[in-house]
Amino acid sequence: MRRLTLPMMLAANLVLSAPVQAEGLEDMIGGIAEGLLQQEMDKQAYIAAQNANTAAAYQNYLKKYPKGLYRVNAERALARLGAPVDGSVEAAALAEVKLGITVTQRVAVQRELTRLGYRTYGTDGVWGKNTRTAIATWQRDRKEKATGYVTEAQLKALVKGVVVVPPEDVDPGTLTPVEIEAALKLTRSQRTEVQRQLTALGYDAGVADGLWGAKTRVAIKSWQKANKKTQTGYVTASQVKLIGSQAGSVVPPAPVSGAALEESLLELTVAERVDLQRRLTRLGYDPARTDGTFGAATRRAIGEWQADEGEPVTGYLTADQVRLIRVETGG
Fold first, then answer.
1. Residue 191's Cα: distance from chain center in Å?
2. CATH class label, 177-247
């Protein structure tokens, strides 16, 4: 006997169950078939997300199927990965970058989370997947948005007395301009932002990389002269705030891709970058230079290493990848 096709089976059931106008039967069958097709597409999309098993994959599924059959499963997977459900990871990460969290503060946060029972599996100041998951779980238990990235209020809750902005000016009569700037303990991210702000105001600080060389110092001096400040080439806390205030209406936050933003959160020092370039060289990936500057050649080397490791090829490192490179080269 020849097998009935899906439309024929549906038609038979409909005829037996209730009288249907002939002209509407085809539309009804088409609607039911379309619904079944949508369910199958929903299922296949979720299976694809499962196979990838990344936050981006699950977020992409939820974006395509916000009311999908596997929505709850996808949300649980994102919670397990320490990622937000609504795809706002970049916004939360960018907000965390602006806090300028130091390595010492990162270590303190990991220790406090561990003390509270949220395992970070390390207190080295590098916030990888385990630390992000611990933060997200802690946030969820506090009935706050579980993004895996801390806000200023959350940072203060985890580390009492934390400083997330430059301190007030010290007595200029007792310290040199260099010592005054050093006392601010500006993070690499904060230095990069000051360079961007100076350039936006018309004082060319060169490449905004957080490394204040001759060009940045000249830009600071020019800004100081224009604002009737002592021309030292070194900033004070009040000057950092004034530069930011002046640039606030001039330049929007720099757009940063998700991978680049994630790497910026690591706050890798120049020494750490040099070490990673040397390790990549030992593994057979040529960064061209080992000067601590991640240029095109280094990004290409990182991408080649990621491809060989089966990692997403971004050219930017995550905390877990930094650790893996160190393990592969002897720790």
1. 19
2. mainly alpha
User: pTM value?
Assistant: 0.40
The DSSP annotation for 242-283 comes to: HHHHHHTTT-PPPP--HHHHHHHTT---HHHHHHHHHHHHHT
* Identity of residue 52: A
**pLDDT mean over 151-163:** 77
What pLDDT shows up at residue 86?
Answer: 57
Residue 261 has pLDDT above 60, yes or no: yes
- Contact, 123 vs 141, CB < 8 A? no
For CATH 1.10.101, the residue range(s) in the chain are: 177-247, 268-328
130 SS3 class: helix
Average pLDDT (250-270) is: 70
CA separation for the pair 123, 114 (Å, rounded)? 9
Question: Following DSSP, what letter does each residue of 75-106 receive, concatenated?
Answer: HHHHHHTT--TTS-HHHHHHHHHTT---HHHH
What's domain 268-328's architecture? Orthogonal Bundle (1.10)
Q: What's the residue count for the chain?
A: 331
pLDDT at 330 over 80: yes
Buried b (16+ CB within 10 A) or exposed e, 66-98: eebebbeebeebbbebbbbbebebbebbbbbbe
pLDDT surpasses 70 at 167: no
The residue among 284, 287, 282 whose CA lies nearest residue 317 is 287
- Which one of 31-35, 192-196, 318-322 scores highest in mean pLDDT? 318-322
